[in-house]
Structures are given as C-alpha cells and as structure tokens.
Amino acid sequence: MLEKVWELIDREEPVRLARELVRIPSVYRPEDPAGNEEAAARFVAEYLEGAGFEVRTEEVAPGRPNVWAVWEGDLPGKTLLFEAHTDVVTEGVAEDWEHPPFAAEREGGRLYGRGSCDTKGNLAAAVVAVRAIKDSGVSFPGRLVLCHPVDEEGMMAGIKAFVEGGHASGVDAAVICEPEENQLCVRQKGALRVEVTVRGRMAHGAMPLSGVNPVTRAARFVVAVEELEREEIGRCGEDPFVGYPSLTPTILMGPEFGEPQINVVPASAYVALDIRTTPAQSHGELVGKLEGILKRLADEDPDFDATLEVIEERPPTETPKDEPLVRATAAAYRRLTGAEPRYNGVPGATDGTFLHAWAGIPIITTGAGDREIPHHKDEWVDEEELFTACKLYAATAMYYAYGED
C-alpha cells in the first residue's frame, strides 16, 4: 500500500507548491495588527479545497486566519495531525540577499527564499503527502488533519486559538513539520519570557545621591541571573538532545518609558530575560528562584524596588521513544532510507509546545532543512531533502494508522 502512495508523489510537486508559498510574503510585522498571513492562508485553503479536502478557516485576529483540513479514511482509527505554520520572519534588508527573499529562485538543487526552510517547504511536503494518501484509494483506518496556523514566529496565537477552540480535541498525535534535517526530534526546550521593572527616583546626573539609581540596581539583578544560570547548568547538566539551559538578559534599559538623557538618573529601568529550559527544570521553581533574587537584593538595599512578570511560558516537551507516533516515524524512516533514524531535540519552541502542553498530544518534530538556516538571509532548503520529507510524512501516516510492523 505504501508503494502505491509513494508512486503518487511527484518529485517536483512539493517544490512547486513551496515556490508558490514563498512568493507570498507572509511576514508578520508586530506593528501591523492585521499581520500579513492572510494571503498565504487563503492560498493554502484554496489549494486544499481544490484537492478535495474538507477545509475550515478561523480568524485569530483581523486578517490572521488559521487554516486546517480534514480527511477521513474509510475505516475507523486514530487521528494524526500534521502542523506547519504559514507565517515567516522578516526578510531584513532585501538588497542584502543574493537571491531575492520572495522570488523563490532555484539553483544547484536548492530552493531559496524566506520561508523556504522555515517552514513553507515542509508545509508543502505535508500537504502533498496527505493528498497522495487520499488520492491513492488505499484503505485507510483513521483521520488525517493538516493544520496551518498563523503567528508561530510571534506569540503563537494561532496554535493557542486552535487548541482553545477545541479543534485539537480527538487528535491522537501530531507531526510538527519544521526544518530538522529529517531527524526525529523527541524533545523541545521550553521558554520563559520575563520582564523586570526596577523603580528608582529621578535626579540630576551631577547629584545622583539625591535620587535612587535603578540602572545600577538592575545591573545587580543581571549579575545575579548570570550566577543562577551557572547554578542551573551545574544542577541539570547537558541534555543529550537539547543541550544546556540558559537564562539570557536580552534588554537592559533605563528609563523604562520616556527618553533617556545622559545627565539624568532615570525613574525606572527595565530588564527582559529570554530563558530556555530543559525537561529537567520546573518553570515554577525557576520563577521562584528569580523572585528570591529580587527579595535578597531588597533585603540588602532598602532602596531596591522591583517587580517581576512572566509574559510568556512555553513548557519543554518530551515524547518517549516507545510512543506509537515515534515508533511509526522511526519505522517509516527505516523503510524509506534503509538506515536507522537520527534522534535529536529542538533548541527552540514550536507550535507543538502547546499541542503537547495544553492538549496532551504526543508530538514529534521532523522535516527538511538545515537546522541553522532559518531566519538567515538567503534562506534555502535542499530539494532532494524536501522530497524525502514528503515521503517520510506519508509513510509516517501509514505506519501510524496500521502499526509500525
């Protein structure tokens, strides 16, 4: 049966579809409330409708629609979801690209363009794979879902809305289609985005003691965070798939609001932390340690006044290798390549984070594309690797439906 499905996968079709998608600049720009994903989402919806899928769309915000499609097999069985987002990151300065970011040029077996690797190529591969199963006429026990949300590169509002809307209900497992060199990623780092406001009292730069300087106090907090990071690395060690945890101050500025001036002690300072966690860590305990640092600094200095807010939490994920989805994907990889699969982890978060954390869905992340290429200029994906990913997705669905044996 699988060979019959693979015969329907034209080597050029994933590339052709990916080129169409890359030519649609679906860059979400935070300053634009409407975003720019609508054209890409509309293209995907029309393609899927033309291919005979039952297609649904739902706006997360004006002009920012999620798209998903459902295909029911002829026999009862499990539901497998393939997820790939429609948005891409900014192209930066387009003139700096050798291959224009939205021209979808092909050269030397590579497809170039923003989103070619992350992750419009894999979106195309998943769509072509599921369509091949549908069009093959093979008996199929179960249901396949293609899920294409917005805002993965932002605050992941698309997948959050998909889960909160109940649309993930009944999904038994999910393949997250991201550039992982077709490795099978069974873990993901978690993320905490933390903001700290340190309050002081404005003063003349020539008479700083007449005020309270929040910048120096914010700096003490940053130094203490660096020490906490060393402690966490020592306690957790190196995860074999996702490496070490990190607590990274990415913004330190004063004042928090208004215009800075070199001869003015500001009234406040602001620190932002980008924290990446491993499955060995508890987010609640980690936030407690950060709050403990603020308390200690306040005990040492009566003028230290700061508050902490967690603005985003993305738990780490882990899927055991004996999970049916992982076993099915591994069997598919062996059948396709004749080699043992390479297991790895995702260094950042994906939409799979919330499918797992909020809906309890086992996930695996795999797909074509060099792991270090996303968000770079002259982003590209290898066309042969994309064809392999397409066949891997199709085989994974078949093995998951029928069993890995």
Helix/strand structural class: alpha+beta
The CATH superfamily of the largest domain is known as: Zn peptidases
Gyration radius (Cα, Å) is 24 Å
CATH class of the largest domain: Alpha Beta
Q: Domain count, please report it.
A: 2
| Percentage of residues in strands | 25-35%
Helix content: 25-40%
- Can you count the beta strands? 18
Oligomeric organization of the protein chains: single chain
Q: How does the overall form come out from the CA principal axes?
A: elongated
Residue-averaged pLDDT: 97
Element pattern in H and E: HHHEEEEEHEHEEEEHEEEHEEHEHEEH
CATH architecture of the largest domain: 3-Layer(aba) Sandwich
Distance N to C terminus: 13 Å
Strand order of the largest sheet: 1-2-6-3-7-17
Q: Main sheet?
A: 6 strands, mixed
Low-confidence stretches: none
Protein name: Probable succinyl-diaminopimelate desuccinylase
EC number: 3.5.1.18
GO biological process, one term: lysine biosynthetic process via diaminopimelate
Pathway: Amino-acid biosynthesis; L-lysine biosynthesis via DAP pathway; LL-2,6-diaminopimelate from (S)-tetrahydrodipicolinate (succinylase route): step 3/3
Architecture overview:
With about 400 residues, the protein is of the alpha+beta class. The chain is built from ten helices and 18 strands. The protein folds into two domains: about 270 residues, Aminopeptidase, CATH 3.40.630; about 120 residues, Alpha-Beta Plaits, CATH 3.30.70. Strands 1-2-6-3-7-17 form a six-stranded mixed β-sheet, sandwiched between helices. It is elongated, with a radius of gyration of 24 Å. GO terms for molecular function: metal ion binding; succinyl-diaminopimelate desuccinylase activity. InterPro entries: ArgE/DapE (IPR010182), ArgE/DapE_CS (IPR001261), Bact_exopeptidase_dim_dom (IPR036264), Peptidase_M20 (IPR002933), Peptidase_M20_dimer (IPR011650), Peptidase_M20A (IPR050072). Pfam families: M20_dimer (PF07687), Peptidase_M20 (PF01546).
